[in-house]
Every structure is written in C-alpha cells, then in structure tokens.
Design a protein that fits this description.
Elements: H1 3-9, H2 18-23, E1 27-29, E2 32-33, E3 46-48, E4 51-52, E5 60-65, H3 86-89, E6 96-97, E7 105-112, H4 115-122, E8 130-136, H5 143-149, E9 166-171, E10 174-179, H6 186-193, E11 198-206, E12 209-210, H7 211-214, E13 221-223
Parallel strand pairs: 7-11
Antiparallel strand pairs: 1-2, 1-3, 3-4, 5-7, 5-13, 6-7, 8-10, 8-11, 9-10, 11-12
The structure holds uracil (URA).
Length: 230
C-alpha cells in the first residue's frame, strides 16, 4: 500500500497533508523515515509518530453502548460516534455500527470499517442470534413464551410473521428475549403487543459474544476477531 493512501486510509491526514507529515519525519517504514508519498509498505511495518498503525487489517470492535446516544452519523443529540476516538472517524472507509440499537437501549454493539463484514452480519439471511435483557412496566403474560416461539406472531404494519424467538421470563416484569432477525424496535413492539411495554432494554449477546465476558463499562470497547462470526 502507498504511504499516502495508508495515512488517509487509517485516518491520520488527508492526501494533501502527506508531504508535510513526511517532511517532519513523522512516518517511518521498517525504522527509516519515509521520504516519498508513493513508497509502498505493509501497514504493520509503519510507525506514525512512533506508534504502530491502529487496526491495520480493519477495525472490528465490540462496544458497550450507553443509554441516550444514537447510532447515526448525523442526527441531533449525542451520537455513538461522539464517544469514539476522533481518528476512527477519519478512517476511510468510515467506521459504522453493525446494525443499530435504539437511543434508549444499551449494551453490545459491533463497530467496523469493513463494509462486507457489516453487510454480512446485518443480512436478513444470516439470523445471528441476539439476546436482549429487558424489564417491563407490566407483567409479561406466560402465553407470550409460546406466541413468540410460534413463528406466527404478526406485528402491526408487517407483512410477514416474526421468526420464532425464545422468551425466558426471570420475573413477572423481566426476562431475556433471543431474536434471530432485527426489525425496527422489535423487542419493544413484541412486548408491547402482549401488554408489557418495555421499561429498560439491554443487548447482552450477539452470536458468540457475551457482554458479561467482555468486562466493558458503558462507553468502553474491545477489539474482536471477525473470524468468530464466520
Ligand atoms: N429491539 C428494540 O426494540 N430496540 C433495540 O434497540 C433493539 C431491538
């Protein structure tokens, strides 16, 4: 990869600024200062200001989304992206969330700059199980367990029934719901439809990843191996 392409790809500077960066000796390749923007290098062999290139083979991160921020690049109010290092947002391709969580939902969210990974994970064909822990403002009726599992539950405004979903009740007004698809506000709509509006909602698992094992406070992240989702 050319050094000028590398500096822009990984969010250091624009191609226009590369000459200045090289002139100041900020970039080394195998220990030698890089002089020419068209020099080719493996990202792993390059240091910028003495530090290795971050996520040289793509950014794959599990993030514990706090309540109150939105999974969008341009809505009003606090955005998930406001909580991430500025350099991630200058990467090109840009860093995106893999799917979305509502503003009022917390928990496990994947972030990546790999568009193919993002599309593969959000494809309706993949059915990656996602587990949500919830509390509700009214008791969840026991019949909801069979209804959600039936594959016949219709949500208002939808043309096809929800895929079978596993509901485990942990109290009168609390439980876990495992979904194999991701419709708009799906957990909230399913529970509201059985008379139990959601009060709190947290995503605690995506496929093989469990928030509990990752030891992340809200707003913290950890790099993940995308191969675990292959
Ligand atoms: N279902 C919801 O209702 N909200 C989310 O954020 C995710 C799933």
């Amino acid at each position: 990869m050319r050094i000028d392409a590398l500096l822009s790809r990984f969010g250091y500077c624009s191609r226009r600024e590369v000459a200045q960066w090289l002139k100041r000796g900020r970039v080394t390749h195998l220990g030698e200062p890089v002089k020419a923007a068209n020099e080719k290098a493996e990202p792993e062999d390059v240091l910028v200001d003495g530090a290795p290139v971050e996520f040289p083979r793509g950014l794959y991160v599990a993030f514990n989304k706090p309540l109150g921020c939105t999974c969008s690049h341009k809505e009003a109010g606090e955005l998930v992206y406001d909580l991430l290092p500025a350099q991630w947002l200058r990467r090109n391709p840009v860093v995106n969330t893999v799917g979305r969580l509502d503003k009022d939902t917390s928990g496990l969210l994947l972030l990546t700059d790999d568009g193919a990974f993002e599309h593969a994970q959000t494809s309706p064909k993949r059915h990656v199980p996602k587990v949500y822990a919830f509390t509700t403002a009214a008791p969840v009726p026991g019949e909801a367990v069979a209804l959600f599992a039936s594959g016949e539950m219709m949500l208002q405004g939808e043309r096809t029934p929800c895929l079978p979903a596993e509901l485990v009740l942990t109290g009168a007004c609390s439980g876990r719901l495992t979904l194999h698809e991701g419709r708009y506000h799906q957990v909230r709509r399913m529970l509201a439809a059985v008379g139990a509006p959601v009060e709190t909602l947290e995503r605690i698992e995506i496929g093989p990843l469990r928030l509990q094992d990752l030891n992340l406070q809200p707003g913290e992240w950890v790099e993940i191996d995308p191969a675990m989702f292959a």
